[in-house]
Design goal:
Strand order of the largest sheet: 3-2-1-4-5-6-7
Number of strands: 7
CATH architecture: 3-Layer(aba) Sandwich
Mean pLDDT: 91
Low-confidence stretches: 5-17
Order of helices and strands: HEHEHEHEHEHEHHHE
Number of helices: 9
Shape: globular
Distance between the termini: 51 Å
Helix content: 40-55%
CATH superfamily: NAD(P)-binding Rossmann-like Domain
Strand content: 5-15%
Largest sheet: 7 strands, parallel
Length: 276
């Protein structure tokens, strides 16, 4: 009964207009992306959330879960490494909701390959998803954000990076390169778009328990090695990243742009220098 009451209250809240923002979250069928989508749905600020994946059924399951929280949601299949898919993702969002306030570029891939064995196909594939996709999705969204500005609204772009925008990662050169690139891309976007009241920020997770990092769950030796690099002494969870993203997308962060928020348990603090 309590659950039903909460859902009814959220629906009433939505109808009363307290929810007003529309967000697009790429790669949101699982892991950090799904956690971000659910955090947005729970915060009471969104009237529409667009989930995305190359697997439409998985994205639709997240959208269906969002709807039970009194927030509308649609799922759109798109491969963000393809420009045409990125353009369609934004266009379909506008067609359905009429506006776009927040874009979270979360989709990402990585692959463990020694430098000299990395093929040009692997290079382009990872750069395409992790760097070119965020560029195109942001570019297309900004075209609409510019037109819908009013006194109470501002566009917001949040790029999910990694501690490896700063920390080199051997065997992951395309991945680390894309993360270093997205840092400067975001800072440059923030500077260029500030006068248009559009903010751009980065969230850089460290070791987070997701399918991408499943080795940390399956390999005890790998986990122990990573834990030595984390001053807090544990691996993070997706919801801890999502909470930071939700804050940056909110009006509470209205004076924040061009900044990286590391969610890494202190991994970027040179933990080898820590005293015992």
């Amino acid at each position: 009964m309590l659950c039903n009451f909460i859902i009814i209250m959220k629906i009433i809240q939505n109808k009363n207009g307290s929810r007003s923002k529309v967000a697009v979250i790429t790669g949101s069928s699982e892991g950090i992306g799904k956690a971000i989508a659910m955090a947005f749905a729970n915060c009471g600020e969104y009237s529409g959330i667009v989930t995305n994946s190359r697997k439409i059924d998985a994205a639709q399951q997240v959208s269906d879960e969002i709807k039970t929280l009194g927030c509308d949601s649609i799922a759109i299949r798109a491969d963000v490494s393809k420009e045409s898919d990125c353009i369609r993702l934004i266009e379909e969002t506008i067609k359905h909701y009429g506006r776009i306030d927040v874009v979270v570029n979360n989709a990402g891939i990585q692959q463990d390959v020694p430098f000299e064995q990395t093929s040009i196909e692997e290079w382009y594939k990872i750069i395409g998803v992790d760097l070119t996709g965020p560029f195109v999705c942001s570019r297309e969204a900004v075209k609409y954000m510019e037109k819908q500005q009013d006194a109470n609204k501002s566009g917001c772009i949040i790029n999910i990076s990694s501690v490896h925008q700063t920390i080199p990662k051997p065997h992951y050169i395309p991945y680390a390169t894309s993360k270093a690139g997205i840092e400067m891309m975001t800072k440059t976007m923030a500077l260029e778009l500030a006068k248009k009241n559009i903010r751009a920020n980065l969230v850089a997770p460290g070791a987070i328990q997701t399918d991408m990092n499943r080795e940390l769950k399956e390999n005890k030796d790998a986990l122990e090695k990573v834990l030595k690099q984390i001053p807090i002494g544990r691996v993070g969870i997706s919801e801890e990243v999502a909470d930071v993203v939700e804050f940056l997308a909110s009006d509470k962060a209205s004076y924040v742009t061009g900044t990286t928020f590391y969610v890494d348990g202190g991994m970027t603090l040179y933990p080898s220098f820590a005293r015992e």
